[in-house]
Design goal:
It is found in: Membrane. It is a multi-pass membrane protein. One of its GO terms (cellular component) is plasma membrane. It holds the Pfam family HisKA. With 537 residues, this protein is an alpha+beta fold. It folds into four domains: 26-142, no CATH class; 163-293, Beta-Lactamase; 321-375, no CATH class; 383-529, 2-Layer Sandwich (Heat Shock Protein 90). Helices cover 52% and strands 14% of the residues. It has 13 helices and 13 strands. Helix 2 (61-78) packs antiparallel against helix 3. The two termini are 75 Å apart.
Length: 537
């Protein structure tokens, strides 16, 4: 088999593949086909019988000759190979001579016109069969061309719709297999290494050649990845491989390695070569587009992380100054002139220092939790916990302003349990209740409830404050988002508390939400999977 070994390095460069020549057309296949031979004999016998009938009815010999020419035409359309057309032309002449010329039933013909008649009849029959075969070949070529163009167009459309790397690999493998009608092994490249291959065979994966995914075949594909040159069958590199491997590249970077399984002496239509170039280009473009998209996503994520860090540092530097200044100022007053203040005044200063310190402690805890979530190091130790105990523990750690509100607890089922990390869930409830305390006027009612709804446990913190606008509800759980506080408090939040609550609840597989508390106020709630009491007993 002739060879044209690939020297190119991917799409965008002209690359030749080892598929030289084309499959030998069936019209030129040597040998005898029993089915086609039977068709030839049947049609010639039928033409002879019809000719004998027409002769008995008094038809001229020209009509009988036309019958044989029609038979040759039918044989050329029904049988494979030019040999059958030539054979039918010769048989038609001999049969006409044997059955319809004097003396009958011999191959001797009387009359000088018969040899010329036989020659003309043979030439007409031969030309008829040749033209018929040519039309058949052109029809098949047009059908193949239409099939190839349909594959290219279909590939382009499917790759444009592919949303993931798996989709690209699946579409590419299927279209290559469909175009070449050969088993395809497709190695995506990830982090400069071969990823898990995809195998596709026209007859089904079960019928794919054994050993195609062996370590030796993978080494051949790895050679292609390293050298960016074709390897495998029909090449000088690893010629014993089962497939011919070639790279799909973008510039000098290999995006995939594709293997086409070839049998001994197998060839591919040269028309498929140029179409394969088109497929390589489409596949390479799709892989490059995906790679650039992933890079863009990573850049966007890095930019977002940097933006969050900048916002965090800016917020910390701005918002820590006020409580730290208050703590240091009040402590300085107590150290220098504390004895001159009355007990009530000193107690108020102590209270201010305590409130500022507790605010800083809460802030630091939230910052540490945000850091753990951002780094992916948050450990969630789930175990069955009583909802009543979680709420009771959270209410013991509220801000000092909790005394200015009417806080109630509503948990009808004292045995309601959830599989959760108790420490994290306590932090969630503390953040939500403190948020209600901060944003509602003194004297407002705050109710902390927990109930079962189907297989879910629903926690809610409802207040009777002024409520939250629909615009603010959409951003309530975003990091660094804060609602304007009109209390005149010297401290303002960093917008971490509710964002942290959302991350913790979702890490437990739950959902957090906000809604209006009719007739006025706000409800912030979240759901967790409920657990039957004493289910582990």
């Amino acid at each position: 088999m002739g060879e044209r070994q690939g020297k190119g390095r991917g799409f965008g460069r002209r690359e030749t593949l080892p598929f030289s020549g084309g499959p030998v057309e069936k019209d030129y296949l040597p040998g005898i086909n029993l089915e086609d031979t039977g068709k030839l004999l049947f049609i010639m016998a039928l033409a002879t019988l019809l000719g004998l009938g027409f002769e008995h009815l008094g038809f001229s010999k020209a009509i009988i000759m036309a019958l044989y020419i029609l038979g040759v035409l039918l044989i050329s359309t029904q049988c494979s190979g030019r040999g059958y057309g030539a054979a039918s032309s010769l048989i038609a002449v001999l049969a006409f001579n044997f059955f319809f010329t004097v003396p009958r039933f011999t191959f001797v013909a009387q009359g000088a016109e018969y040899p010329v008649t036989f020659i003309i009849m043979f030439i007409i029959s031969l030309i008829t069969s040749t033209l018929t075969l040519r039309v058949r070949r052109q029809a098949r070529a047009q059908a193949r061309s239409a099939h190839r163009m349909a594959v290219l167009l279909d590939t382009s459309q499917k790759l444009q719709r592919a949303a993931s790397l798996d989709d690209i690999v699946e579409v590419s493998s299927a279209q290559l297999c469909r175009l070449l009608d050969r088993t395809i092994v497709f190695y995506p490249v990830s982090d400069a290494a071969l990823a898990r291959p995809v195998l596709l065979s026209p007859a089904g994966v079960e019928e794919a050649p054994g050993g195609l995914l062996s370590a030796e075949e993978e080494k051949t594909a790895a050679r292609v990845l390293g050298s960016q040159e074709p390897a495998g069958r029909t090449t000088e590199v690893c010629p014993g491989a089962m497939a011919y491997y070639f790279p799909v590249c973008s510039g000098d970077q290999v995006l995939a390695v594709v293997g086409v399984v070839l049998g001994e002496g197998e060839q591919v239509d040269p028309m498929d070569l140029s179409l394969l170039q088109g497929l390589q280009s489409e596949i390479g473009f799709a892989l490059e587009k995906y790679r650039l998209g992933e890079i863009q996503k990573e850049i966007s994520m890095q930019a977002e992380r940097e933006r969050l860090r900048s916002n965090l540092l800016r917020a910390i530097s701005h918002d820590l100054r006020t409580p730290l200044t208050s703590i240091s100022g009040n402590a300085s007053i107590l150290l220098s002139d504390g004895a001159r203040f009355e007990e009530g005044a000193r107690h108020k200063i102590y209270g201010d220092i305590y409130d500022d310190a507790m605010w800083l402690i809460s802030l630091v805890e939230n910052l540490l939790s945000v850091t753990h979530i951002d780094n992916g190091t948050m450990e969630i130790r789930r175990q069955p916990e009583l909802c009543e105990e979680i709420v009771a523990e959270a209410l013991r750690h509220l801000s000092r302003q909790a005394g200015e509100h009417h806080i109630a607890v509503d948990i009808p089922d004292s045995l309601l349990m959830v599989p959760a990390d108790a420490g994290l869930m306590v932090q969630v409830i503390i953040n939500i209740v403190n948020n209600a305390i901060k944003y509602t006027p003194a004297g407002s009612a705050i109710t902390v409830s927990a109930r079962r709804e189907g297989e879910k446990a629903v926690f809610e913190v409802a207040d009777t404050g002024g409520g939250i606008s629909d615009r603010d509800k959409a951003r309530l759980f975003d990091m660094f988002f804060t609602i304007d506080n009109n209390r005149g408090d010297s401290r303002r939040g960093l917008g971490l508390g509710l964002s942290l609550c959302k991350s913790i609840v979702e890490a437990h597989g739950g959902e957090i939400y906000v809604k209006d508390n009719l007739p006025h106020g706000t409800v912030i709630g979240f759901t967790l999977q409920a657990e039957e009491a004493f289910s582990n007993a």
